[in-house]
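ok so i was messing around last nite and threw this chain in just to see what happens. nothing serious, just curious
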Amino acid sequence: MIACIDIGGTSLKVAVANEDAELFDHQLLPVKDNFDDFINVIIEWVKEKQRKYEIEGVAISAPGAVDTKTGVIGGASALPYIHGPNFKDIIKERLGLPASIENDANCAALAEVYKGAAKQYQDVCFVVCGTGIGGAVIKNGKIHHGKHLHGGEFGYIIVVEGDEEQPIYSELASTQAMVRRVEKRLPGDWNGKKVFEEASGGNVICQEEIERFYHYLAVGIYNIQYIYDPELIVIGGAISQREDLCENIDRHIDILLDKVKIAHVKPKVVSCQYQGDANLIGAFVNYQYDQV
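result:
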């Protein structure tokens, strides 16, 4: 059994996985305000599971630019203190167990390729749409990290020309960006769910901003298709639960293809299969690769 940990900004999601990536004993653990307390929560949880299961190793999903070889997290996240310590060395020293660690979006992508929406594909791009835009690139069934560990960081894409400041994909095509645009036009307390509900009720401004959201999302997906030419593009994030998501993305991609006469390859876009468990399952899959 493998102890799987998904590091989030407000909690640790944990579970134990068997050899088929089936998850048991789901729990939410608190995130502490310093690294020593934070890592102690993880260590004590694993020790508790060792009394129940034969734990062979620890698999971690984490935000940031994760160096899977060294076990160190670069970049930035909501938990500044996780950037710098060597998780592999700490787990080995404190528990005597091998550990693996991978970026959370990469883990989610691995879960989809392993036995989710992309299980029959080898070349896949995974786009996570939420407070920003994240993602992952799968090449020949494995993560492409890139020279600077920024493979799949689609949120940095430029989709429109800026003036003094240059907006990026995350600032235009995320659900949070859509909400911010609505708030500018209709001051109040808004979230993505409310925007869609109001649009269904006839709110013209919400309808316009939803259409703008789909347009920006489609532009980025079009670019990803022609940069990497994947077999499949999988959409993750809470928005992926909408049944009409891919239909609306397809509609806006068709508008783009009608304008770009030379373009004949239409991206194949699907919603992810796994939601809350994706990072845990992907962490398990990454652990298997890491031990080979």
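not much to say yet. Residues 189 and 232 are 36 Å apart (CA to CA).
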